[in-house]
Amino acid sequence: MSFFQWLGQVGVTLHPGGWGTTEKLLALLNLKPNELAIDLGCGSGRTLAYASEKFGVKVVGVDLVPSLASRALKRLKEKGLIGFAIAADIMVLPFQSETFHVAWAESVFVFLPKPDAFSEVARILKPKGRFGMIELTWRNEPRPEYCEQTRQFLGVQRYEVLTVQEWVAMLESSGLGVEVAEKMQSHAPHSSFSKWLSDWWDLMRLGFGLAKQVPISKWGEGARKIANLFRYTVPAIFVTVKKN
Q1: 244 part of a folded domain
Q2: What is the DSSP string of 121-167?
């Protein structure tokens, strides 16, 4: 069973940096009321709903896992928010070119082929549209062997952490001008106690949920591998504007 199938069964998604990094990313994107925004890899819709509630944007969520997209849509409906969520592949998004004012992603592009994935983001953005993301980068020297260990444990086709300079080069080559490229100091930037508690609770639910899907021996081995990866990485925030 792959990582994405696990997430679909557990119904919980998290990303490096937690909620404090999410709040910072959305603030840097300067969201405006009634803009059309897309969350790429929306998971269960936590960020999607928050952006709609706080900033008044009209939101669209896409996720590769149908059950997660359904959870996100249910969250929006329960809160009475304007928007929808669908199951879709980020590499071939079912939207016309120049549709969205703003897009964001949280720990998604480590799983995708680059720069083709960024070119698809640029395609769906309006001229001067903004794109922001939270992705892992190397704390100091790259240790690609830990990416390969993580890829094998998660059962995915690709898992690739880049340096900040490499991320910037990929974005720029895809027609996205980088305005912010900030390496965070840790995996848990400051956030309010309630948001920190929510992150902690989701982490526990995710851990217990995934532990039920795989043998204990494999889960313990995988946890050690992921711990090694996190030892050498930190989250980074990137904010870009589509070039003319």
Answers
A1: no
A2: HHHHEEEEEEEEEEEEEESSS--HHHHHHHHHHHT-S----B-HHHH
